[in-house]
Write a structure and sequence with these properties.
By secondary structure, the protein is an alpha+beta fold. The chain has one domain: Ribosomal protein L5 (50s Ribosomal Protein L5, Chain: A). A 5-stranded antiparallel sheet has the order 2-3-1-5-4. Helix 1 crosses helix 4.
Length: 179
């Protein structure tokens, strides 16, 4: 069992029951999945960009990414139907807990000028979305091996009913939010 999952079971569930008065442990909000997304807009000018994105997502998540394709042609963006426009990895279970532990304790600390996550980044349904301008904040990526920088977004889905529940859950899991 991962370190964060043990913390959730032993510390977070009792604390959430005490704060919100849940009668049953199954009523306590929990993490459902993590989605890592990269848009591949530069693929039009650089052929090696897809390989860079693929290897980066494989290193960061430990899973092979799925490439998303355009549903329609958009002439203003020079996009044709069925052209690759992004790459996505969805994590669940132990890989999800390991990734969130690494994200909260290592990657966010390596972001330049980081002062904490905005509480507004948690939506009303309890989902947290974090955008990174550079992918080199993750410890698996060596900065001297990087040829091209690209951004990525991480979405953490919970089954919390409100923003307040999700904020307290993520706070107890170790995410640094601004006061």
């Amino acid at each position: 069992m991962s370190r964060l999952r043990e913390k959730y079971i032993k510390e977070v569930i009792p604390e959430m029951k005490k704060i919100f008065g849940y009668k049953n442990i199954f009523a306590v909000p929990r993490l459902i999945k993590v989605t890592i997304n990269v848009g591949t807009g530069q693929v039009l000018t650089d052929d090696k960009y897809l390989d860079t994105v693929k290897s980066t997502l494989e290193r960061i998540s430990g899973q092979k990414p799925v490439f998303t394709r355009a549903k329609k042609s958009i002439s203003a963006f020079k996009i044709r139907q069925n052209m690759i426009v992004g790459a996505v990895v969805t994590l669940r279970g132990n890989r999800m807990y390991d990734f969130i532990d690494k994200l909260a304790n290592v990657a966010l600390a390596r972001v330049r000028d980081f002062r904490g996550l905005e509480p507004k980044s948690v939506d009303g349904l309890g989902n947290l979305t974090i955008g990174f301008k550079e992918h080199i904040v993750f410890p698996e990526i060596k900065s001297d091996e990087v040829e091209r920088l690209h951004g990525l977004s991480v979405t953490i889905n919970t089954n919390a009913k409100s923003q307040k529940e999700a904020l307290s859950l993520l706070n107890l899991l170790g995410f640094p939010f601004k006061k």
